[in-house]
């Protein structure tokens, strides 16, 4: 009798435990998805406005090809900076790159912004270091993945330059194409997280160089942190060093804020500032967006209103980048033109000094070596800096020129005065005209086209786009 009662008790306990477990499983299996309508609204995804201005793009390409490219080629600029601009790069969409430690929610953020959750092509996410690839999520007519080697081989893509990072890297590069309203306007790049205790060579390619390539081309860089990973190590320090000078593009995100109580969140926010302060050398404190970017609803009892407002602020930044895409592109080409112009003047100056120093009895090699070894003695950089509008910190240093002339003999170049056509068209005049007249004029036309109110020039000068570095609004 006693035994039967015991067995009955045991069985009912088992049934109870099983029912509770199934209920818990059901809870886990069906988390509530968050409403995404504000994403569509803030990014104006419903509007069918064409993403670009084809006429202005055509003109930009034309200016680049007729005024900047000839100077690049005449003075082999690509061998100094390894930088040539392809047509596809001119027409490419703004690029948003996500960087930060592993498992801070970078892939989840892309899934959330694109609404890929529970679709077969969602990016893989997990609490352990998951993403070991650089994943480029871009627009395409149909859903497909593109292998790194295919992306690199396709010269019409702006990613073909990535080939230079080697086969080891191309195996870690993957493209995902899909038809999507947001991807018609931007391309996202998901990166493998920084792992502090890993050596560069273990990855089989130079992680920093690849990051630098993406940083240089990104229009917006989300540096993502999570409350449990605020420690700053060598890799993160290196990353911030690489980000120097890109202040206006960086947005720091304290993600997963929904996983903490408000008081803890404040502490973590302070700690993040404290860790980042030595890495960011700016006078203004950076704007940190505190929110949670994943598809599931905010945990109960967290500051959901604040998180949502922060999310909308970040989305507005993204929208700005989309809207200003053409202006940014023109400014980028102009910046590039200024560097190419400077390079041309500098090579010309090296040639001129060489010519002046040479006499009938001198050894050309020794003379040129003396100039290359100590250009300051001959006022090479100073004389050009005085003439141009370039900041000296923006320039390659004299070692770069020593290497440059190590590969390219000085005799392989002609002086600028020799680069003129019979019609009197000179390379130098053309690039100067592009920098000072044509590109600023194109910028004004685009700005006016977007906002036909001429008084808007009062604010922007119709030439420069206001910088919104580390936006603090
Ligand atoms: N609580 C919470 N967890 C998140 C959030 N975003 C991502 N996660 C979780 O964090 C883990 C790492 O995410 P993942 O996107 O793979 O990070 P990644 O390595 O930076 O790409 C996953 O288990 C996610 O489910 C968030 O906003 N809140
Ligand atoms: Mg990931």
From TrEMBL:
The keyword GTP-binding applies. Residues 90-331 form the Dynamin-type G domain. Residues 1-24 form the signal peptide. It holds the Pfam family Dynamin_N. Its main location: other. Coiled coil: none annotated. One of its GO terms (molecular function) is GTP binding. SUPFAM superfamilies: P-loop containing nucleoside triphosphate hydrolases. GO terms for cellular component: sarcoplasmic reticulum lumen; sarcoplasmic reticulum membrane. It is a peripheral membrane protein. It comes from the Eukaryota. This is Sarcalumenin. It comes from Synaphobranchus kaupii (Kaup's arrowtooth eel).
